[in-house]
Structures are given as structure tokens and as C-alpha cells.
Design brief:
The protein has 322 residues and is of the alpha/beta class. The protein is built from eleven helices and 14 strands. It has helices at 4-13, 20-28, 31-34, 57-67, 89-98, 116-125, 137-150, 185-189, 251-254, 257-266, 272-281; strands at residues 37-41, 47-51, 73-78, 81-86, 107-110, 130-134, 155-158, 171-176, 191-201, 204-212, 215-219, 290-295, 298-303, 311-315. Helix 10 crosses helix 11 (272-281). The protein is globular, with a radius of gyration of 20 Å. The N and C termini lie far apart (49 Å).
Length: 322
């Protein structure tokens, strides 16, 4: 039967997990405790639930096999909308390693989900040094049960993730497991100087080095990332500009993830064809050539140079994020 140690070995073999401390966490935290059921998409787009207590042994075996596959699992769905998931383990591993955690650090997680990521953090640092926040009391309540069953007790806060968790600040690291269009200022304000804030912006991951309560900067990692959007707070910056079906962008560009990354990052600042021309002329840049800068509460994305010719506003301060 698949087990946590098997998953850890596969992740390590793929290069997603090198730190021995994180290897121990993935080997010892049982993912099945955190996903007693999840949803899979079957023919016709219908969602089917696989669960731990299914009376059919074949379906129970499918459930357990899926738990230890390297794939995201849809854990909470409402009216066809995905509200929460357990992220792909290899992506979680890469994010946790990119967080550059050291013993004694205090970590804030935005987006509790199933509680599995909080358990990995608590295994590494101890529950007293981990705070996780989610807007939905159903999610935090269920995660609390999962974490207790697995023997981990981080702080669990039901609240607006845009506002962070000021009661337990300051933090040395902030990690978000939900997508944002702009980094909420509260995450920087609640961090110590030199902290890292790792945030999924668009379809990328950007680690911001915190320089002060209103300042930070960082380049995107090479890893693509697709997360459920952060819920709560005010609208986050510009809406993403969709690609019109009849636009003049060449079909080959529409098949490139690097082009879609730019289009989403630029939002409404660039029309699709203008984004295409920039992407083409810049040599089809990958994610690592882009970054995000926050100065005095203003923030912008950029290509190659924070103060160069290719920058896009991500919006000013978000409501509530002092």
C-alpha cells in the first residue's frame, strides 16, 4: 500500500525535495489523514467523490492511491466551484524549500486548506511557531480536526487572509497557498526585516525579501503555480486581461506558457498583441526574468529591471492591509 515515505522518495528522486528536514516531514506526516475524501472529474465534467470509508474496497484503494500520487486534490466544492484543495506535493515541496526556513523561525501560512501544509511546517518548526489562517470556518474547523488527529497543533485562525494574523506577528516567513494579483501589504507589515514572503502571483511564485514594513522585492521562481484565488479583502489590483478569441496574437504564442504568464502579470496594462510583441522582442522570457517590487505601499511587476522600461502596476495598498 502507498505511504508517506514512498511519496517522499519519489519527490526526492525528481529533485523536488533535497533538504533532509523536509524529507523527514514528508516521510512522517500522513497525507491520508488530511484528505479523507476528495473529488475527481469523470466523464461529462461531473465530479465524483472518493473517500476513505467507501464500502467498496476497490474505490477505497483508488482513494488511497490518489492520496499519494503527486497531484492536487480537490477537497471542497460548492455549486461546482472549487473552494479548497490539497496542493500538488511536488509544488508544496519546492515552495517549502524556497522558503529557506531555519530552526526557531515563525511562519504565517495564508490558506489553511486541508491542513497538510501546516502539518509539514509544524513538523519542521513545532506547532507554536506556525500560524495558519483561512476565511472559511468550515475549512479551519476541518483542518483543526485533521491536525489534531495527526498530532500537530499549530495556531489556526479563522479570518481574512488579506489581513494576515496580526495577533501573532511578527513573522520570519509568510507562505501563501492561494493566488493573488497583488501582495497584501499586511503580509510585509507583519514580517521582520529580512523576512521572506512567498506568494503565488498570476501563475508564478515570487519570494519577496522584506526590506521594511512597506518595502520588498524579489524575482519569480521558475516553477509554474496554479492555486485557488485568495478570498476576502478588497479587489486585488487590475483584472487579468483575457485573450480575445479573434485577436491578432499568433497561434504559436497562445500555446506557450511563458506568454500566458506575461499576459496575466501585465493584466489590463497591455493589450494581448502588445504583450505578444514585448514577449517576442524580449526573446520569449521565462518566469525568472520577471519580478515584483513594493515601495511605500505601491507595487509593480517588471521584466529584467525593477526600474526599467517594462513595468506594470499591481495596484496600491489593499483595503485593510495597513
Amino acid at each position: 500500500m502507498p505511504a508517506a515515505s514512498d511519496l517522499m522518495r519519489r519527490l526526492a528522486a525528481r529533485g523536488a525535495l533535497a533538504d533532509p528536514a523536509w524529507q523527514a516531514a514528508f516521510a512522517e506526516v500522513p497525507r491520508e489523514v488530511f484528505v479523507p475524501y476528495y473529488y475527481v472529474t469523470v466523464s461529462g465534467g461531473r465530479r465524483e467523490r472518493l473517500w476513505r470509508d467507501d464500502p467498496d474496497p476497490e474505490r477505497r484503494a483508488r482513494w488511497l492511491s490518489g492520496v499519494y500520487d503527486d497531484q492536487p486534490l480537490a477537497t471542497r466544492v460548492r455549486d461546482g466551484e472549487l473552494l479548497s484543495s490539497s496542493s500538488q506535493p511536488s509544488l508544496m515541496a519546492r515552495m517549502l524549500e524556497a522558503l529557506e526556513v531555519r530552526d526557531g523561525m515563525r511562519v504565517l501560512e495564508i490558506g489553511t486548506g486541508s491542513g497538510y501544509n501546516a502539518a509539514l511546517l509544524a513538523h519542521r518548526l513545532g506547532g507554536a511557531r506556525v500560524t495558519t489562517v483561512d476565511l472559511d470556518p468550515g475549512i479551519t474547523g476541518t483542518a483543526r480536526e485533521h491536525l489534531a488527529a495527526a498530532g500537530y497543533r499549530p495556531r489556526i485562525v479563522t479570518g481574512d487572509g488579506v489581513l494576515g494574523a496580526p495577533a501573532y506577528a511578527p513573522y520570519d516567513r509568510v507562505i501563501a497557498t492561494c493566488a493573488v494579483r497583488a501582495v497584501p501589504p499586511a503580509w510585509l507589515a507583519q514580517s521582520v526585516p529580512g523576512a521572506l514572503v512567498l506568494a503565488p502571483v498570476g501563475t508564478g511564485l515570487v519570494p519577496l525579501r522584506v526590506e521594511g514594513p512597506r518595502d520588498g522585492e524579489g524575482r519569480f521562481l521558475s516553477t509554474p503555480a496554479h492555486f485557488v484565488p485568495l478570498r476576502g479583502g478588497a479587489p486585488q489590483g487590475e483584472e487579468v486581461h483575457p485573450v480575445p478569441s479573434a485577436c491578432a496574437v499568433p497561434p504559436h504564442a497562445l500555446r506557450q506558457g511563458s506568454f500566458h504568464f506575461l499576459l496575466g502579470l501585465a493584466g489590463g496594462s497591455l493589450a494581448p498583441y502588445d504583450a505578444y510583441e514585448l514577449w517576442r522582442d524580449a526573446g520569449r522570457p521565462e518566469r525568472e526574468r520577471y519580478g515584483v517590487t513594493v515601495r511605500d505601499g505601491l507595487q509593480w511587476a517588471w521584466l529584467d529591471d525593477p526600474y526599467g522600461p517594462h513595468t506594470w502596476s499591481l495596484g496600491g495598498p489593499l483595503e485593510g492591509g495597513a
